[in-house]
Amino acid sequence: MSSASQDELLARARASAGEKAARGVYAADLLDALAEPLDLQPEPSVAAGPAWPEAVRTAEVVVGPPPPSGRPAVGPALTAVKRAVERALRWYLPPVAAQVSAHNRAVLDVLAEHSRHIVALRREIDELRRRVAALEAERRDRRA
Amino acid sequence: MTAIHQAVPVLLHADAIGDETRAIRDGLRARGFESEVFILPQDRPAPNLDATARPIAELLDGAPPASVVYHYAVASPATPLLVQSGLPLVLIHHNVTPARWFHMIDPAHEAGMAAAAADLALLPDHTALALGDSEYTRRELEAMGFSPTGVLPIVLDQGPYRRHRPGPLHHEIAAAPTLLTVGRVAPNKCIEDCIRLVAAYRAGVDPRARLWVVGDADRLPVYRDALLRLVHRLQLEDGVRFLGRVSQQDLVDCYRGAAAYVSMSEHEGFCVPLLEAMVCELPILAYPSSAVPFTLGEAGLQIAPKDFPLMAEALGILLGDAVALADHLERGRRRAEELAPERALDDLVAQLASIGIRP
């Protein structure tokens, strides 16, 4: 639009927006919601780094059957002994593994939450940097 | 016959750079040049790969042309190959979105954009002429040390937008006042501000209003999910629709049936949808960032800063004022004519002549 007709239209829009704001058409809670930053929730790996997938992969501790022995002659006997030991400790190892897994999951949740906070803070810092740069540019323009 | 070939990493159908590359090839041929398009080897060819493209090895090993027009938008092995070849390059820079827009959203995208910006710095010493698709991009090129520089607006075939028969989506979008925005769903496009705008528009101007977002929304799920949370927060579940990528027929249906086009983007190298909207005679409300003011010229309602109630009121007044609207649309029509492809192609030939390349 030509600058004159756009200025005239904007003047009308400003008056209309002001009048509607006074009547509560643009309610305070709507304006607050419009001003909220976008709620970005990146994957924890964005802040937690490249080790994150491995931390997730190994969090669950699994107690499985012992691997069979491949040694010649004594292999079957060794396998039988391992199985016997595994059976003997079955009352103990699985609950311990479950407890460690639960702990690991809780640690991952804490790390993920921290990562989200770090991301939010970094974005806030980015935004503040942009605003500072804009203000500095404005100040330079005024001086010039 | 003077040969001016083009190089692109890949030549696709239904792709903005692909469409422009073909239009330039055909335009150069029509103006007396020999012209082919060369691409990198494709390990897994895309289904919409244009089979008329030839392998870049033929360009590097064959008789040297008068110039190679290189379309630049992403980091690719084509850049070092062309630099090492010593072929006379004409750069068409489609602009690179600053990596910071993808910070904390997609590390791979962020790294890709940073690599694209770094690779561009390899080219000034090997480029005979650098063209930006807008004055904004040309200034960036100049600041990077390219010389001489010029502007070549996107060469868009406006025919399919003008010769259009309305389809089912046209009737669907026209059934309620719909604000339209088009482009990949990426953080520099500030789709969140389009959502905020429609929330303000509903509150202050028309409660039936809605927003349709056309463009790929799956590439950046962190950003898309944040937009969906915003839609929920503003209780706009019935008012915002993400259509994803659409066919040309559906795209023009959207342009032809919408009430207005809105762009809140904060980084554009040209912004093709603004031109498409002008061709389709759609009112435009835009935030005048980066290349947007250069693409719109005197067209479009351009408002800064982003005061959403003010923007909503201004758009409401524009759409309700027949005289203002007619003037607005006329300015859009004139700007679309200025950006007609034949003019751009004539301008390209003139700029090539300025560096001594003639048919």
Q: Enumerate how many helices of chain B there are, as a single number.
A: 15
Oligomer: heterodimer
DSSP strand (E) fraction of chain A? under 5%
Shape of chain A: elongated
State the largest interface.
Answer: A-B, 33 and 42 residues
Structural commentary:
The complex is a heterodimer of chains A (about 140) and B (about 350). Chain A is built from 6 helices and no strands. By secondary structure, chain A is mainly α. Chain A has 2 domains: about 1-35, no CATH class; about 40-145. With about 350 residues, chain B is α/β, with parallel strands linked by helices. Chain B has 2 domains: about 5-155 and about 340-355, Rossmann fold (3-Layer(aba) Sandwich); about 160-340, Rossmann fold (3-Layer(aba) Sandwich), CATH 3.40.50.2000. Chain B is about 45% helix and about 15% strand. Chain B has 15 helices and 13 strands. Chain B has a 7-stranded parallel beta sheet. In chain B, strand 9 (about 210-215), helix 9 and strand 10 form a beta-alpha-beta unit. In chain B, helix 7 packs parallel to helix 10 (about 250-255). The longest helix of chain B has 17 residues, at about 320-340. The mean pLDDT of chain B is about 95. The chains are: A mainly alpha (about 140), B alpha/beta (about 350).
Topology:
The complex is a heterodimer of chains A (144) and B (359).
Chain A: H1 3-22, H2 28-35, H3 44-48, H4 52-57, H5 75-88, H6 93-143
Chain B: E1 4-8, H1 16-30, E2 37-39, E3 54-55, H2 56-61, E4 67-72, H3 78-85, E5 89-93, H4 107-120, E6 127-132, H5 135-143, E7 149-151, H6 159-162, H7 168-174, E8 178-182, H8 191-204, E9 210-214, H9 221-233, E10 240-244, H10 248-257, E11 260-263, H11 272-279, E12 284-286, H12 292-296, E13 301-302, H13 308-320, H14 322-338, H15 341-354
Helix pairs in contact in B: 1-15, 7-10, 8-13, 11-14
